[in-house]
Amino acid sequence: MWGVTIAFKKYSPFLGYWGSPWVGLKYFRMFFESKDAFRIIRNTFLLSFYSLLFGFPAPIILALILNEVRNSRFKKLVQTITYMPHFISTVVVVSMLFMFLSPTTGIINRVLESLGMEKINFMGSSEWFRPIYVISGIWQGVGWGSIIYLAAISKVDIQLYDSAVIDGANKFRQILHITIPCIVPTIISLLILNMGRILSVGFEKVFLMQSPIIYETSDVIQTFVYRQGLQNANFSYATAIGLFENIIGLVFVVSTNFIAKRVGETSLW
Amino acid sequence: MRGFVCILMAFVFVIAFAACDNQDNAPAEETQEADTKAPATDAAQTDESTDAEEPDEPQKLFEETETLTILCTSHPSYPYSEDMWVFNAVEDAANVELNMIAVLDNFDDKFNVQMASGDLPDIIYGRFSHCNQYYDQGAYVSLSENIDKMPNVKAYMDSDERYEQYFNVAYAMPDGETYMLPWTGNELILNKIGWMFRKDIFDLNGLEEFSTDEEMYETLKDLKEIYPESYPLSFRKGVGQLHFIAPSYGTADTAYYDFENDDWKYGPISDEFKTMVMFYNKLYEEDLIPPDFLSFSTGTWENTIITSSAFVTIDYYNRTNMFNGALTEENPDALLAYTPGPKGSTLPEGEERILLKSGFRDQGAMVCNTDNQENAIKYLDWLFTDEATWLVSWGIEGETFEMVDDRPQPILDDGETVAVKYGIGSDGLALRRNGNDFGVDGLKEYVDAVYASEDIEQEDYNPIIFLKYTPQQQEVVSTVGTEIETYVQETISKFLVGEKDFSEWDSYVAEVESMGLDEYLAVLTEAYDAVK
Questions:
Q1: How close, in Å, is residue B239 to chain A by CA atoms?
Q2: Among A78, A218, B2, B154, which residue's Cβ finds the most Cβ atoms within 10 Å?
């Protein structure tokens, strides 16, 4: 925790935590006055928001679909295939993106071309960065994420379905009125935890996908901190921004938890 | 149930005891081994020396084996490995154990982490900026204060006036001390940046080498017509490579000192820079550069050359070795060769600013403030002896090279290089080298061309200026400077691919100016005045 103090000091590794002089809120001011501040906060927020918006329901939907599959060999096959990408390292995933999406040799552009469409320079255009990030993120995480929901679904009492069938509920109604309400506590808990990470997108992936031409949408807090802290050794500046990010994260967790408590009686604490 | 628990407990105990046993035994065995080995080797050595009867066999640098931790970069084409011949040879010759922290990528990150963690290496091979960052915090040992402990460095300074100048003037910090031993690999031809072209393809199609940018444009267009699938010009690092192209337009991609007008200027907002970007935008629009060149990694770029989908490139000239090796596997006639390259249209008549020296001119070694500093100083000094210089530049006669016509010729099989085979030329070793003789194998044509064009001495147009920042100045450079640089890279990228129209150039310039450019240039001027 002591490390946090260096956000308020002009930290020098050789003077140490105690020896470095205090500078107060200088680095916070510097950050908010800089031209990039608004853009990188917006980018970080939007990237997380879209990841959450599209990435969060995906494993739930997959779990609901898988739960309805009666052929257990097929179900296992699908499960295995969908959670395979979770084990591929980010570096490899990003190289795959570059390969598949390359405008000269990539398979996607070859397909577009054969359909008579214009080639798209996916990795070099800022409007494509967010979709690529989010979609590849879903591909990476959907199978893995569905495991926890499948476990929650398997805990649902069979008798509920039986009585629903007697009441004349079809498959869709069963999902809507039994399965989903039963896994809502799991969904809420995971949502609250995810909200806490709203400003912390995966540094690695963004950094690897990034090039100056797409800074407009891809420059996020983490990459900024990296440039300032590690490349330029402005440790205090980088810490100040990191601290800001964490405070926002905390606010999000607490408020989501508060809302969840009010609305649905489910909360982390 | 109880029985089961008992068996389980017994099992756990047995394992625990076995583990203890193992732990007790292991070090004992090692020491025993070491004990029995040490005298044996000693004996062997004495035997040998008495047999050979060589009383004046050179004494090793350290009587007992010393360990030195060295932080340095590692070359991507021949990355550091413990087994490299040259490191073992140095360890043997100096009786030292080199604990190399060789960093392949992002050296600055690793360096900053290492410094911030307080776990200092004994020696750092870095750039002048690394000295600048931490000298005032007591990270390094002053070498000028310890110069008496370095007789070989002193002797070398006496023999080479320029080295003495570098050490005592250029590298001296505001407090009057020098913390960095300059590296003399400065003029190394291999580290030069140059234009390269596929000579075989040009010859085949009757195309001529180009010497201006318009000629290059026409040639590239011809190539595109003959090979419609290709993107004839390809380079890596995207917008970063303008660093090497800008001088041929009489500007730079950073702040630079204009000697004619005695003024600091910011290259990327100059008209010359605009002309260059417009030219490359034209190449891009006409599909003469790969559409995704801005997101190229080194690997993607290498692929375009190796698969013959690009014929012209700009990079470190020593890359031709690797490329030609790969190219001739498919086509024995393939040849990627040096060409002086295109001259920018904005360069004044009669001026040549084409071949750039590498940015490695401000490198050197620093000794960190550790308990081991005495040994580190002694070791660095030893590297300046003739013996050590010869060893790290060429190796040992009969083992790595043989003398042909009074010139050392490396012993290599086809397609091998001294760097890959022996590790000669690896970072983190040589400080003083055998000048331009080093590693010219396979590059004779290029060397001749360089000498013929008399580009070898280009100090006058793009000299490195050793700016020394006070902590306050350092902060401006690293915050305002970085912010501007980020913005410039992004915007220039957009101009290059036509995402931004050139009618917006003026607003771009105004934006850069509003970001604190004056403050930044003022710091540079101030720092420059202090060293002028």
A1: 8
A2: A218
